[in-house]
């Protein structure tokens, strides 16, 4: 699997304390995308299913899969979601594909069976959202299992992570002004 990065602990990418797995590669190239470094199909690092599973801390029971675009690696995404579900993790997936497009993708329906929530739709900077866990108002939360409800997805926050080498990462759903201040400092 081509992975951009794994964030071991996050409290802003879905309910609870989650590990976030960012897939590498996106063909949509949405203007204003928050994660443009995930777009290159040649970037990221290759990781095995075992390496990804081993990177999830023992204290985490919830997973968010984002991108880039996870459904551009459908076989890998199916293997990952199948293994995660089998291990008892709850799974939220962000995708630029719409639900009807996913249903027509190879392995699309099989992947949907494995996940609890799909947040779908291409980011539209002209409809940027300032409420809930989606980037723009055209995106939809699909509750595939009964493990979550809309009430679990109303908060909107950011985390700024500082690694041991001093590099920083911002994750979650920042406002435009916060992102501008972060990028200018």
Automatic annotation (TrEMBL):
Enzyme Commission (EC) number: 1.97.1.-
Domain of life, per lineage: Bacteria
Role description: Activation of anaerobic ribonucleoside-triphosphate reductase under anaerobic conditions by generation of an organic free radical, using S-adenosylmethionine and reduced flavodoxin as cosubstrates to produce 5'-deoxy-adenosine.
Signal peptide segment: none
Organism phylogeny: Bacteria, Bacillati, Bacillota, Bacilli, Bacillales
Family per record: Belongs to the organic radical-activating enzymes family.
InterPro entries per record: Aldolase_TIM (IPR013785), NrdG (IPR012837), Organic_radical-activating (IPR034457), rSAM (IPR007197), rSAM_sf (IPR058240)
Keywords per UniProt: 4Fe-4S, Iron, Iron-sulfur, Metal-binding, Oxidoreductase, S-adenosyl-L-methionine
Protein's name according to its UniProt entry: Anaerobic ribonucleoside-triphosphate reductase-activating protein
Cofactor: [4Fe-4S] cluster
Residue ranges of the TM segments: none
GO MF terms held by the record: 4 iron, 4 sulfur cluster binding; [formate-C-acetyltransferase]-activating enzyme activity; metal ion binding; ribonucleoside-diphosphate reductase activity, thioredoxin disulfide as acceptor
